[in-house]
Every structure is written in structure tokens, then in C-alpha cells.
Amino acid sequence: xxxxxxxxxxxxxxxxxxxxNQKLGHQLGQLHPVLYSLPANANAxxxxxxxxxxITGQNGPYxxxxxxxxxTGLGSPDGVKxxxxxxxxx
Length: 90
Known about the structure:
The chain is mostly helical. It is built from 3 helices and 2 strands.
């Protein structure tokens, strides 16, 4: 069984959002529009700039790069910085 990709990250995000909901005292609700509108200087995500989604040795169709990309999305969330950024946006 492979333990990466969506199968790994979905429960991690669910846990992170549960912690945010608890800290804020209410549910965040529809979060995607807020995440994608956060200012870059919030540093809420660690940008992944190297790598690809290769699983076959063929260099993968999606490459990581600066900013949002199809391979790594917004990057890896920094929980504390993301919560602080969300507090200022909500």
C-alpha cells in the first residue's frame, strides 16, 4: 500500500483544520477561496520549488516551481503562520 499523495495529506489537513476550528472557537467553513487569496508575505506555506510527481522514472509530467504549481500546489503549510494569516483574513 502506498502512503503518500492525497491519501496521506487529506487526513493531515483535516487534523490541522480541526485544530484551527478549536483555536478559533468556530468552524472555518469554505476555506479554499481564503487560502488562495492570502498575501504571499503571510509566509503561510513553504514553497516547494524542486522536484516533480514522478513515480515511473520518466521525470513526471508536473514540475515543482516558484509559487503555485500543479505538482505541489501552494506548498507545505506552516500551521502557526497559516492560522495567524487566517485570523487576519476572517
